[in-house]
Write a structure and sequence with these properties.
Layout lengths: L23 E3 L9 E11 L6 E11 L3 E3 L1 H9 L8 H16 L3 E8 L10 E5 L4 H10 L2
Antiparallel strand pairs: 1-4, 2-3, 3-5, 5-6
């Protein structure tokens, strides 16, 4: 097993974007294709212009390859956006890029379900597929609306 820095240790929250807190563990079932769904309904960031808080549910679906994201590190990572100024569309792309870099998944998608603000609800979706999952990525992107 990998040496984890966060799991089992005191939680020290960081409130500004910190991708370095993300950690992975070995996938003991890498010979099989399966979905992992992670939902965080306590996500917050701030508008980079007004600095007003934005609240969202972040949904991460992925088909792992050799690694899985360690859930406590994901919680710390998502919490690190709390004081980070970013637009909704950018944040889901940032989360996707960081997880793709860490995990090298077969397939990954990130959905941001942001609370209504100013009368507008924003729900960005980003995905990635590799190999036989490239077609799945195209299909799910086309159907997302």
């Amino acid at each position: 097993m990998n040496e984890l820095k966060n799991l089992g240790n005191e939680t020290n929250y960081i409130y500004n974007y910190s991708p370095e807190v993300l950690e992975a563990i070995d996938n003991k079932n890498s010979d099989r294709d399966y979905f992992v769904k992670l939902i965080s309904d306590e996500f917050t960031c701030v508008c980079p212009i007004t600095h007003q808080p934005d609240f969202a549910t972040i949904i991460i679906n992925y088909i792992p390859n050799k690694k899985l994201v360690e859930s406590k590190s994901l919680k710390l990572y998502l919490t690190s956006f709390r004081n980070f100024g970013t637009f909704h569309e950018d944040v889901v792309n940032t989360i996707a890029s960081d997880l793709i870099k860490l995990l090298e998944p077969r397939y990954l998608e990130v959905i941001g379900d942001f609370s209504v603000r100013g009368g507008i609800s924003i729900k960005p979706f980003v995905n990635f597929g590799e190999g036989k999952f490239e077609q799945l990525a195209k299909q799910r992107l086309e159907k997302y609306s």
